[in-house]
Design goal:
By secondary structure, the chain is an alpha/beta fold. It folds into 2 domains: 222 residues, Rossmann fold (3-Layer(aba) Sandwich); 155 residues, NAD(P)-binding Rossmann-like Domain (Rossmann fold, 3-Layer(aba) Sandwich). The protein contains 17 helices and 15 strands. Helix 4 links the parallel strand 2 and strand 3. The longest helix is centred in the middle third of the chain and has 24 residues. It is globular. The termini are far apart.
């Protein structure tokens, strides 16, 4: 079996980490146990490009238990847990191509390595696999039944492809399921981003001025958690509705150039480019700590920052000090890449349980509906979303009410009004 990882000797530590995550992933485990009996993915090749974490390992094991042939690479050069990669190779015979800190050249070689299994299904986090197939490996698309996409950034790319008529196979936008983005993006990103910032810096959040760039689901979660730790939170936005929402949620809202004058911390979660750019660096407070929790490393314009710096020094793991020509110092975490994975361990297993339950059910959905699906971006049916939510509630020992027949009759009709 081919693979490319840091060190196979790390497998024991990785196995411990995988089992620890499994304890908080009862929904995925339940689906996996059912699929292990029926083998619905028997003979199906799945090329996966995801963050190589303990939670992802449990998804890969579940896919293999369902009969699939799986190959995994990292969806970000800094997101790999090397011990987990080793455990998947040694203990589960799953080919993994991922090394934390790998160069961009190695990253793309790993993308192509997982595509070399000639997939029937792609599983993406950021749409890099889909991008590689559509630009450099079009001949491999003939065999592909469909794919799944994990994150907002990837879904945005795919919808753009669909709009232009460039998408050549159907994709399920797992991110758009309520049990994914509502919980994973808000609670997962909110907690894990702060975890990464604190691990990298060991700075006190309470009393600081914390700027959150973007008030989507990830931004909402991060702003909520930062305020919960005692920070004075400022939100920056380009969407008037989201800006209004942030303001009415009790946050300060202002332009980034104004926020940067006050900020002790700035974290970007927008999915867009140059959110913190040359104009922002000009106004930025001395000693400001910048990080990014958006998928790609484009939100902080490091090229512009380097141009106004006289030197750059590494002070701690994941902390680089840019000493500016005007005497100020700006600190950048995790090289501008995902701070929650570059400096910490990513989302808690409890939220990834729902996200990856969506992933495995999305594969099942694609296979069952292969003759009906067009080259478009789909969302999983609401009935599957509700199934995952009910299974998660059950794992928390939470019960909810059901509509009576009379209530169903009332809300489905129009005749009854004011009495």
């Amino acid at each position: 079996m081919k693979y490319d990882i840091k060190d196979i000797k790390l497998a024991s530590a990785g196995e411990t980490r995988i089992k620890w995550a499994e304890l908080d992933m009862p929904v995925l485990l339940g689906i996996s146990n059912d699929f292990k009996k029926t083998k619905p993915f028997k003979g199906i090749n799945i090329s996966a490009c995801l963050h190589v974490t303990a939670e992802t390992a449990n998804l890969m094991i579940a896919l293999k238990n369902a009969g699939a042939n799986v190959a995994l690479c990292a969806s970000n050069p800094y997101s790999t847990q090397d011990d987990v990669a080793a455990a998947l190779v040694k203990n589960y015979n799953i080919p993994v191509y991922a090394i934390k800190g790998e160069s961009n050249e190695v990253y793309f070689s790993h993308l192509n390595a997982v595509l070399d299994i000639k997939p029937d299904i792609t599983m993406d986090d950021g749409a890099d696999l889909v991008g590689e197939l559509h630009t450099k490996r079009k001949n491999d698309i003939k065999k592909i039944i469909g794919g799944t996409e994990e994150t907002t950034t990837g879904v945005t790319r795919l919808k753009s492809m669909e709009k232009e008529g460039a998408l050549l196979f159907p994709i399920v936008a797992v991110n758009d399921s309520m049990t994914k983005h509502f919980f994973d993006n808000r609670y997962g990103t909110g907690q894990s981003t702060l975890d990464g910032i604190i691990r990298a810096t060991n700075k006190l959040i309470a009393g600081s001025v914390f700027v959150v760039a973007g008030y989507g689901w990830c931004g909402k979660g991060l702003a909520m958690r930062a305020r919960g730790m005692g920070a004075n939170v400022i939100v920056t936005e380009i969407d008037p509705v989201k800006a209004l929402e942030a303001f009415m949620d009790g946050f300060h809202v202002m332009k980034m150039t104004d926020a940067a004058k006050k900020a002790d911390f700035i974290c970007t979660v927008t999915g867009n480019i140059n959110v913190v750019g040359a104009d922002v660096f000009k106004t930025m407070k001395n000693g400001c700590i910048i990080s990014n929790s958006g998928h790609f490393d484009v939100e902080i314009d490091l090229v512009a920052l380097a141009k106004i710096s006289k030197n750059k020094k590494t002070l701690r793991d994941s902390v680089e000090a840019y000493n500016l020509k005007d005497g100020r110092t700006i600190f950048v975490l995790a090289g501008g890449r995902l701070v929650n994975l570059g400096s910490a361990e990513g989302h808690p297993a409890s939220v990834m349980d729902m996200s990856f339950a969506n992933q495995i059910l999305a594969v099942d959905f694609v296979l069952k509906n292969r003759k009906k699906l067009k080259n478009s971006v789909y969302v999983l049916p609401e009935v599957l979303d509700n199934k995952i939510a009910m299974l998660k509630l059950k794992s928390f020992d939470v019960s909810i009410d059901k509509l009576t027949d009379r209530q169903k009759e009332y809300i489905s009709g129009w005749q009854e009004g004011t009495k």
